Fold these 2 entries.
Entry 1:
Amino acid sequence: MNDTGKTKSLRVCRKCLPYAETREEFFQKLEAYIDNLAEEDRADQEHYEARLKACAQCPNLSDGMCVLCGCYVELRAALKLRRCPDVVRRW
Ligand code: SF4
């Protein structure tokens, strides 16, 4: 309730939501989300690691995020059907 006695609606920006918590908390949640992916949606471990290795050497990686698609690469690489968004795919 605000100072006029009216109930104030709370709007949450989904994009900004991760930044409302600490960086460590956010990455813990991201890791838990990845751990809980359905097996049929998940890339196998060999592909996952190769993808992350390619991302680690890529100039488009910034603070864990791909600047081309805006995804956290750990999540994108974990999803079997996702591909690198670069014009010449790195994975
Ligand atoms: S997803 Fe592709 S373009 Fe993005 S950081 Fe990884 S290798 Fe680079």
Note: The longest helix spans residues 23-35.
Entry 2:
Amino acid sequence: MESSGYGLLKDKTGIIFGALNEASIAWSIAEAAYREGARFALSNAPVARRLGSLDILAEKTESPIFWADASSDEELEAAFSQVKEEFGQIDFIVHSIGMGINVRKKRPYDDLNYDWYHKTLDISAVSLHRIVHHAVETGALADGASVLALSYIGAQRVFSEYSEMGDAKALLESIVRALGYRLGKRRIRINSISQSPTRTVAGSGISGFDAMFEFADRIAPLGNADAESCADYAVVLLSDFTRMVTMQNLFHDGGFSTMGISDRIVEDMNDVLGTGTDE
Ligand SMILES: NC(=O)c1ccc[n+]([C@@H]2O[C@H](COP(=O)([O-])OP(=O)(O)OC[C@H]3O[C@@H](n4cnc5c(N)ncnc54)[C@H](O)[C@@H]3O)[C@@H](O)[C@H]2O)c1
């Protein structure tokens, strides 16, 4: 990509939730949005103040930070009031938030702690609903805006170690569709990107992540998509070039979702099993 960008988001304003450190997908999206001419606020949970390095990104992209826990109505309402004060009405929202509590604490899917499960669904999926709700209620979201969330193919298929996060992503994608219908009357669109396994804090919290990463990389004809390429796709979805795209879950996975098995996996399996020789 040309480092000067294409001005895809010139004159656009927004808010990006979920940049924690340089590895975060939202971090790359913020850098790409800045490159494309957008002005925006950054947001994360107050606890991320001491866990991450959002200040560095804020300085780099000349962005204010509005801290808000995405499971708190009060904090989100306050954040969108601040956004409105800073930018007036905004043109885009990026939801790049995820947290699997049972996954982190290594509770298996068939023995979930239900309080943690609720929290996982609340933080990882219901938060998208809350964010859109407060953006609309505070009058911070402009007609014709674009809302984007990050998902994973575990919403549709079983990835054994992805556990409760598969349910969270299924709910997230359903919320994208249900809100898409309602927001359409204001020409606001909402989509999710279903991204390849990516080495981030959220990604590495999943046991078996390395296997998921390597498996997908060996299956996908283009290999795994990294956070930078995801960010390039994201800015296109925030731009006017995709103004008629809504309620979609868009795979950004190097072709993984359409594959069955690849030569590379066949060779790897043959190596492990000692099969595949004619003798
Ligand atoms: N990493 C992957 O392999 C992968 C693949 C597909 C989709 N995704 C999705 O991409 C998104 C971003 O994740 P990432 O991989 O960049 O990891 P990340 O850990 O860098 O980002 C997750 C973010 O969620 C924030 N968060 C957690 N709880 C929150 C709360 N209560 N309120 C507000 N923010 C909160 C974290 O502080 C963090 O910034 C998530 O939705 C994730 O599920 C990740």
Note: The beta strands are 13-17, 39-43, 90-95, 141-151, 189-195, 249-252.
